[in-house]
């Protein structure tokens, strides 16, 4: 690990100013991914700006929904009464991620900023365009069992590893950001990005910007929500495929549907076409199967992950069945 300096800040403005002073500086929150990246030499900041003292760990009710501070711990959010009441999908997704110890350390903002778990990205001896642009992508013709089937490019087929972000995408959250030019908001679905020709960029955050909070608008989806994660082990494993499903059902018909997938793309993958298929239809397995077919349009596999073309639609159907109560 490279030597680095450590600065602890307690206000938003000093945090932003500290990052602006040093081009290699990075914010440190829970550190559950960043420290691994530093130990393996993937990331080498010369300064860490510890933001844990900032007052950004609350969960508050606003006029239109809930605001979750960027430093709220994953375990605290998962068990919060307001979250359980209004957004059980988020609670389920958080509880499906990592391990209890990691959830006790990891923050909401850090969860959003975590990087892909592609093995080639973490091994400095192997080619990876995300770690070293222009070096090639080892996963394209190599071991790609965990990799993407949607939104890939010729340069990168990695997936975003978060469960929490899948739920926040489905729930139409927005991200509040502060930076040298002031505050702005980004729809959650636009925070992460596809690899395109610049796979080294995971998200649309600008240099020096700080995630302040995530806002989730109230909805009528809490009674029929389910997060289904398919993985190699029952716990402490990243998703092969995951589905966040939330439905508003009245009289057996679906009034509104929200669906997003994890483990299939460089960003949490919102299933808008499938949502349109579900809307206004009876909550039956036949409807769910049609929605899953719509969701799979444009999917492409790379050998090791061919099984996801079957696993993904089946996971969508199972998640919808459980969310609707038709199991
Ligand atoms: Fe690197 Fe992306 Fe290829 Fe993995 S899939 S080796 S992260 S470029």
UniProtKB/TrEMBL annotation:
- Domain FAD-binding PCMH-type positions: 1-221
Gene3D superfamilies under this entry?
3.30.465.10, CO dehydrogenase flavoprotein, C-terminal domain, Uridine Diphospho-n-acetylenolpyruvylglucosamine Reductase, domain 2
SUPFAM superfamilies given in the database record = CO dehydrogenase flavoprotein C-terminal domain-like, FAD-binding/transporter-associated domain-like
InterPro entries this protein is in?
A: CO_DH_flav_C, CO_DH_flav_C_dom_sf, Diverse_Substr_Oxidored, FAD-bd_PCMH, FAD-bd_PCMH-like_sf, FAD-bd_PCMH_sub1, FAD-bd_PCMH_sub2, Mopterin_DH_FAD-bd
**What keywords are assigned to this protein?**
FAD, Flavoprotein
One of its Pfam families is CO_deh_flav_C
Gene Ontology terms for molecular function: FAD binding; oxidoreductase activity
State what protein this is by name.
Xanthine dehydrogenase family protein subunit M
Specify the species. Answer: Chitinophaga tropicalis
């Amino acid at each position: 690990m490279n030597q680095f300096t450590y600065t602890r800040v307690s206000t938003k403005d000093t945090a932003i100013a500290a990052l602006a002073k040093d081009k290699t500086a990075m914010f440190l929150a829970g550190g559950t991914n960043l420290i691994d990246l530093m130990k393996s030499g993937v990331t080498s900041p010369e300064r860490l700006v510890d933001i844990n003292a900032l007052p950004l760990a609350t969960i508050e009710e606003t006029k239109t929904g809930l605001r979750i501070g960027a430093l709220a711990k994953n375990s605290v959010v998962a068990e919060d009464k307001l979250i359980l009441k209004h957004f059980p999908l988020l609670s389920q997704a958080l509880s499906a991620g990592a391990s209890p110890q990691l959830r006790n350390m990891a923050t909401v903002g850090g969860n959003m900023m975590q990087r892909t778990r592609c093995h080639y990205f973490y091994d400095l001896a192997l080619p990876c365009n995300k770690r070293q642009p222009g070096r090639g992508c080892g996963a394209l013709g190599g071991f790609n069992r965990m990799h993407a089937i949607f939104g890939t490019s010729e340069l990168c087929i990695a997936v975003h590893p978060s469960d929490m972000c899948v739920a926040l995408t489905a729930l139409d959250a927005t991200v509040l950001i502060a930076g040298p030019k002031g505050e702005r908001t980004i729809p959650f679905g636009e925070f992460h990005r596809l690899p395109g020709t610049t796979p080294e960029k995971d998200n649309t955050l600008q240099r020096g910007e700080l995630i302040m909070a995530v806002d989730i608008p109230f909805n009528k989806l809490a009674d029929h929500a389910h997060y289904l994660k398919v993985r190699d082990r029952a716990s402490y494993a990243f998703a092969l495929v995951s589905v966040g499903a939330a439905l508003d059902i009245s009289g057996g018909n679906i009034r509104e549907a929200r669906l997003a997938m994890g483990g299939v793309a460089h960003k949490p993958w919102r299933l808008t076409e499938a949502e349109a298929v579900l809307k206004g239809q009876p909550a039956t397995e036949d409807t769910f199967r049609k929605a899953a077919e719509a969701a799979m349009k444009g999917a492409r596999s790379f050998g090791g992950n061919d099984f996801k073309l079957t696993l993904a639609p089946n996971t969508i159907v199972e998640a919808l069945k459980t969310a609707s109560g038709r199991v």
